[in-house]
Amino acid sequence: MNPDELYVSVDVETSGPIPGEYSLLSIGACLVDQPATSIYLELRPDSPKHDPEALAVSGLSLEKLEREGLSPQQAMLTFGEWLKSSCQTGQKVIFVGLNAPFDWSFVNYYFHKYLETNPFGFTAIDMKAYFMGAVGCSWQETKSSKMTAALKPLSEPNHNALDDARFQAELFALMLAGKGNR
């Protein structure tokens, strides 16, 4: 790995498919090379709109988050401070996600809406695309179950944002190490 780059595995749970109309409900993040260095945040919904299926997948309760979640601004401030404290001087934080376009869209939207800047910049590494290029497979073969079969991680996803971020970190570390190549 390039010492000037800090790979951060990020996973989110949301109340629906798009930012702006639906809420970011939880963020889990960890360093790819040190998954124990992590953060987990639950946010107060900023919209009542929700997809019951999205809530069923995450198991999160809008009512509970309304009472106990951080304000979105405080959550993004806390996440940004964690990123800064996790970096060495001069390092660039790199967003790594499994289906990064989805997770990054919420994180980017919330950073800009509440803090007017995104510490990740305007790019992310999508693990599905990375895997496809690394092993020469089809898009259909980039499902997490297919990646798990090829890479053989020890952990499993469970729709808790932090647990899933750690699972993704393990998968990405295995990809970087050249595992799963055909």
TrEMBL record:
Sorted alphabetically, the keyword list is: Exonuclease, Hydrolase, Nuclease
Q: Which residues form the Exonuclease domain?
A: 6-181
Reply yes or no: does the keyword Hydrolase apply: yes
User: Under what name is this protein listed?
Assistant: Exonuclease domain-containing protein
